[in-house]
Amino acid sequence: xxxxxxxxxxxxxxxxxxxxxxxxxxxxxxxxxxxxxxxxxxxxxxxxxxxxxxxxxxxxxxxxxxxxxxxxxxxxxxxxxxxxxxxxxxxxxxxxxxxxxxxxxxxxxxxxxxxxxxxxxxxxxxxxxxxxxxxxxxxxxxxxxxxxxxxxxxxxxxxxxxxxxxxxxxxxxxxxxxxxxxxxxxxxxxxxxxxxxxxxxxxxxxxxxxxxxxxxxxxxxxxxxxxxxxxxxxxxxxxxxxxxxxxxxxxxxxxxxxxxxxxxxxxxxxxxxxxxxxxxxxxxxxxxxxxx
Length: 292
Hints:
This protein has 14 helices and seven strands. It is of the alpha/beta class. The strands form two sheets. Strands 4-3-5-6-7 form a five-stranded parallel beta sheet, with helices on both faces. Helix 3 runs antiparallel to helix 6 and helix 6 runs antiparallel to helix 7. The radius of gyration is 22 Å and the shape is elongated.
């Protein structure tokens, strides 16, 4: 796909489709093309423009004022905002724009700058997590090429691994956590961030990584006897059965609790097995680690 629908713009920018239509009627900054069936379609440039306009409007600029600005003036106004929340949101929008244009070097430069300014943890919580939420929306609407997603995900993954390696543990905990992703799950970013939090707290992480058969996980659990098992489910394969996975976990790991976070934890509505804990938000994940 090489265009966005008005619903895509609504989800990514946070501006209601009805409002976007009004903007088109009253102002000059947005003039979408139309399909053969007269449906609005928006280009990459349109998306970036709406992100900028929505951002400025959110932080106090009237649409009528924004309409009179050219793109360079809008960018200058965006850079001038000193509010901390606005600055983080600007960085997130920049990452989206650079990903859309496959500007990999600029994308990486932003990550490096954020690490230097705030450290790995704030970069992840204030920038990367909101960015990945927007990318999740793009992924669902099929308007991001898998190659784009892999490029940016691998860059983020590299930064996380470097951050984990650089942690110096001053006081070691007597607890340990075994981290893995089941077969068919390859999205490591959430799991790597948990690994970072654990190591920073002095808790040893046995990090197995992605696409691990449960029988191999059981072997290491029996061998190392961790305090907890941890997994993060984002987008598993078509043959993955969440019910079967939970049943097998409950059967194999009766003495070791499993903690599960990620998108699937938010959508599961059935009874949760006795030895499984769901962490449905980033705040719950960080609270779990803090209390270990």
